[in-house]
Amino acid sequence: MTANPKQARIADLIRQATVIPVLTIERLEDAVPLARALVAGGVRTLEVTLRTPVAADAAKAIIAEVPEAIVGIGTILNGEDLARAEALGARFGISPGATPELLQAAAASRLPFAPGIATASELMQALADGFDVVKFFPAEQAGGIKALRALAGPFPNVRVCPTGGVSEANAATWLAEPNVLAVGGSWLCPASDIRAGNWAGITAMCAKAMKTLKSA
Mind listing the domains of the chain with CATH numbers? Predict the structure, then answer.
């Protein structure tokens, strides 16, 4: 267990989630019904990525109107993004990678934060700045479970949320790894279902996934 209080908080949030859907919201009007559909299916911890013009407003709407959701901000690339996430009232932040400047800003911030890493050198830099809970990204493309196991050798106390190439087909395999707290992915809310407003379908998919993965 990490001794850093912020890292302990994000470790607990991620561990309780099992699966964190990575949400790229194109239309603001989709934000609240999407979040409600996910929560209804048992998926409460959400990563709203800062990849679209409406992302910040979408996160703000979900935080205000879906109190059951635990909203984090993803695709944090710099200190400005980090400050936006904190101002929105996000519960945590996640980045796909990390620069020294971002790690320093995150260390000084009150927001629980998991930097993205793909290599041993990147992980060493994250650890040097106090981060032992990280996002392994892009997980499959960066070597998959073999790479994760290799990193676990010299870094046995690091806890990971793999994202990138994680799917319904392999999520349980990733979750079986002892250093994995949860997995991230977008398969629970396909873009086609969001565009079609297929909220019932998303809820059903989430309920099935949570039942299967928690029992596994």
Answer: 5-215 (3.20.20.70)
Cβ contact 111:86 at 8 Å: yes
CB contact at 8 A, 38 and 206: yes
CA angle 92-165-144, nearest 5°? 95
The predicted model scores a pTM of: 0.95
Provide the token pair at 61.
């709407």
Which DSSP state fits 161? Answer: E
Instruction: Name residues whose C-beta falls within 8 Å of residue 103's C-beta, 6 or more positions apart in sequence.
Output: 115, 125, 126, 129, 131
Selected catalytic residue, list 6, 60, 135, 140: 135
- Work out the percent of the chain whose per-residue pLDDT is above 70: 98
Write down the catalytic residue from 6, 26, 29, 47: 47
d(CA 37, CA 100) in angstroms, rounded, equals 37
135 is catalytic: yes
137 contacts 96 by C-beta, under 8 angstroms? yes
